[in-house]
Write a structure and sequence with these properties.
This protein is mainly α and 453 residues long. The protein has 20 helices and 4 strands. The strands form 2 sheets. It has a two-stranded antiparallel ribbon. The protein has a two-stranded antiparallel ribbon with strand order 3-4. The protein starts with 7 loop residues before the first helix and ends in a 7-residue tail after the last helix.
């Protein structure tokens, strides 16, 4: 029986790592001096690094639910991420206060440290989402799984093949933080271990039994995560498979609360749902002050949503504290924290998601865009993968293929010395990093149909 327990002292580690000569080594940011004067804590430095990254900025051109929505008030991934980060910070701060009251918070940490770690993880949780959201993931996987493209996968080992065949937004978010942004191939943004830990919803690779459904770690980031997991004292449940950092459950809950409740608001904006329907969904969690009069249905919805989110935040924090010892022992049984929350919170979120599934996700314009996602992203891979293969395996290339590889020169150029796996990961970084608009435009342009005389 495992008696090992994780502890908050290690779980809140501010240690940062970088890559040097193929080794993962500790590093100190020059700005850590600020921490001493309390100008910015280490976790605030993490937050600022995410906010100023190119990947974060590009989320402003990626839609949340309604691809290429013409409507100005609907959410995109950027507004969604900021809202999730707000909710995550509130949950984290509440948990921090309760940990402190129970004597669990280490000397030298404040309750707002917990809030800040969760906030950064929330802010970064969607960075790896490809154009067109989950449908984009499906399209990128579909291309590499198509038997017609099988020849390009020869020579990859099982884990590498799984990686390129399973584009996973969560794993790509980690890849952006740990490898691609700021210091490419040098430790990425070099965030604190605590923040990286809180970001990992699925701390395992594609070789794990559920790996091809969900995973957080590509082979490219595995050495980095081994080092971070060791620093945090995450319990190792199997080979390259760890128990989750307790704070990752708070990040996940914040995301769930936001996408369940805020998608409703988008639906009202797009006239897919009525105010009354939203009101009835939120009724279990909300009460209307008799003195309070809304100017409009929209304002009333926003008010109710605010109350509902507040109730959900309290509930999640309470649930976390009730299960803290299981979370620290790596044996938490729930699917997630919300599954163990009060019935009122569970029912409300479930009803909201059900309505989204039936009324919003099957909307005609959305279906058309989703169907178009496959040929759109497919045409980009049709061009780039054979070009990389020709360069690396066949050691020969022609004009069209050389031109194709030029497209990557501003991101991470493909080199003859790259392994096939490295080259394909660079292609997926490129395709996955595009905004909806850029991918749509590129596919149109590549078809030759857009050429104008």
């Amino acid at each position: 029986p495992m008696t090992a327990k994780m502890n908050w002292q290690n779980l809140l580690s501010t240690q940062r790592f970088r890559t040097k000569d193929g080794e993962i080594v500790p590093t100190v940011t020059p700005s850590t001096q600020e921490g001493a004067d309390a100008l910015r804590t280490d976790f605030h430095i993490d937050y600022d690094r995410v906010v100023f990254s190119g990947s974060f900025r590009r989320l402003g051109r990626k839609t949340q639910v309604h691809p290429l929505a013409e409507h100005d008030l609907t959410h995109n991934r950027l507004t969604h991420s900021v809202e999730v980060a707000s909710v995550g910070r509130s949950i984290g701060n509440r948990v921090g206060v309760m940990l402190q009251a129970g004597g669990f918070l280490p000397e030298g940490n404040t309750p707002s440290d917990i809030g800040a770690v969760v906030q950064v993880a929330c802010l970064a949780h969607d960075l790896g989402n490809p154009p067109f959201g989950h449908t984009g993931e499906d399209a990128l996987r579909h291309w590499f799984r198509n038997p017609q493209n099988g020849k390009y996968l020869q020579g990859l080992n099982q884990a590498e093949r799984n990686d390129v065949q399973t584009y996973e937004g969560n794993a790509h978010s980690l890849r952006i933080l740990a490898s691609l942004e700021m210091y490419p191939n040098g430790g990425g943004m070099r965030l604190t271990s605590a923040t990286i830990g809180a970001l990992l919803k699925y701390p395992w690779t594609t070789l794990h039994e559920n790996g091809l459904k969900k995973f957080n770690i590509y082979q490219t980031e595995l050495p980095f995560i081994r080092r971070v997991a060791d620093e945090l004292g995450l319990i190792e449940l199997g080979a390259d498979y760890w128990a989750r950092h307790p704070l990752s459950y708070l990040m996940e809950a914040a995301d769930d609360i936001c996408y369940a409740l805020l998608d409703l608001e988008d639906a009202v904006e797009l006239d897919l749902l009525s105010d009354a329907e939203v009101e009835s969904i939120l009724s279990e969690l909300t009460f209307i002050e008799p003195t309070w009069h809304a100017q409009s249905g929209r304002q009333r919805c926003a008010m109710l949503r605010g109350i509902a989110i507040g109730r959900a935040i309290e509930d999640v924090a309470q649930t976390f504290m009730m299960h803290q010892s299981d979370l620290l022992a790596g044996c938490f049984k729930g699917k997630d924290l919300l599954a163990l929350c009060s019935p009122a919170v569970q029912n409300t979120l479930e009803k909201a998601k059900e309505l989204a599934r039936t009324r919003i996700f099957r909307h005609h314009t959305k279906l058309i865009t989703e169907i178009a996602t496959f040929p759109c992203l497919g045409s980009i891979l049709d061009l780039l993968v054979p070009a990389a293969y020709a360069l690396i395996v066949e050691k020969k290339t022609d004009v069209r293929k050389s031109l194709a590889l030029e497209l990557l020169k501003n991101s991470e150029p493909i080199l003859e010395s790259d392994s096939l796996y490295q080259a394909y990961m660079k292609i997926l970084d490129f395709a996955g990093g595009m905004t909806d608009n850029a991918a749509a435009k590129m596919a149109r342009d590549l078809s030759g149909l857009g050429i104008r005389g």
